[in-house]
Design a protein that fits this description.
With about 270 residues, this protein is α/β, with parallel strands linked by helices. It has helices at about 35-40, 75-80, 95-105, 115-130, 135-155, 180-185, 205-210, 235, 245-250, 255-265; strands at about 10, 20, 30, 50, 85-90, 105-110, 160-165, 190, 215-220, 240-245.
């Protein structure tokens, strides 16, 4: 018997690279928690055969074979799983490793959203790859309506000067981070929005000069209070320091809308009473 050729289609990733994939992706590996979340949200979770140790949401993701962490995935493990495609987020992953997988005939699809609209686009693309266009459109529609609701409540409100502390050593968000866009849409203005790159580390001198009205902490065990340099800032003096769960804030996935709502309520409490 002659084996039937597998129907393929071409998709373009966020690096503009055209990738030929089976129309029915059967085996996929996700190397970033946000991508795992998106794949489950669009109905592709059953096709995941490998994820990272950080992929902890939804609950079912915990039962999938682990292929190392986001920064140091185990290439041998990935190859052994024979995936049709490996999903990578550029924020954390490396060209050398992509080349190794491609030599084995494993396709690598890269996402790198820098805004909320680009997160929507990632969801649509992954929906298309898993043959779940309708489901991905529903996910994006729900996000859109919740975002619109926030936008209407904040109409005409003055933007609040906001500093996002990713960790206590003064890592923050710069102009290439989707969180900068998130703050804007939540009625704030990031005081580091013009700093180069996505997640720059700033000096104490620079931090001191910023004087934000609000500080948002990406909440994790070693980031539960503002750096001491902010002791005399308006934010600390007025008790305007808020924590947002790091998993929700730092993953460009459907849950980013939860972060948007929480930040908007923190910045403009009266509008959400």
């Amino acid at each position: 018997t002659v084996e039937k050729p597998i129907p393929m289609h071409e998709v373009t990733d966020d690096l503009g690279k055209k990738i030929s994939l089976p129309k029915d992706v059967e085996r996929a590996v996700s190397l970033a928690p946000n991508l795992t979340e998106i794949i489950f949200a669009v109905g592709g979770g059953k096709k995941l055969v490998g994820v990272t140790t950080f992929c902890n949401y939804p609950e079912e993701a915990k039962n999938i074979q682990k292929v190392g962490d986001t920064l140091k995935p185990n290439i041998e493990n990935i190859i052994a799983l024979k995936p049709d495609v490996v999903f990578v987020s550029t924020a954390s992953q490396l060209e050398a490793f992509t080349a190794t997988l491609e030599k084995q005939g494993i396709k690598v699809f890269v996402t790198n959203p820098n805004s909320l609209e680009e997160i929507d686009a990632s969801i649509h693309k992954l929906g298309e790859i898993f043959g779940e266009k309708e489901r991905s459109s529903m996910v994006v529609d729900r996000m859109y309506h919740r975002g619109k609701d926030v936008e209407l409540k904040l109409e005409g409100e003055k933007k609040v000067k906001t500093f996002v502390q990713i960790d206590k050593s003064l890592y923050t968000i710069g102009k290439d981070s989707y969180i900068t866009d998130l703050i804007e849409k939540a009625g704030g203005i990031s005081v580091t929005k013009d700093v180069a790159t996505a997640y720059p580390k700033i000096s104490k001198e620079k931090a001191l000069a910023l004087n934000p009205s609000v500080i948002i902490l990406s909440e994790s065990p070693d980031n539960n209070e503002p750096n001491a340099v902010f002791a005399n800032s308006d934010a600390v003096k007025n008790g305007k320091v808020f924590k947002i769960n790091a998993d929700i804030l730092s993953r460009p996935s459907p849950r980013i809308i939860d972060a948007l709502e929480q930040i908007a309520k923190s910045l403009h409490p009266k509008k959400f009473e």
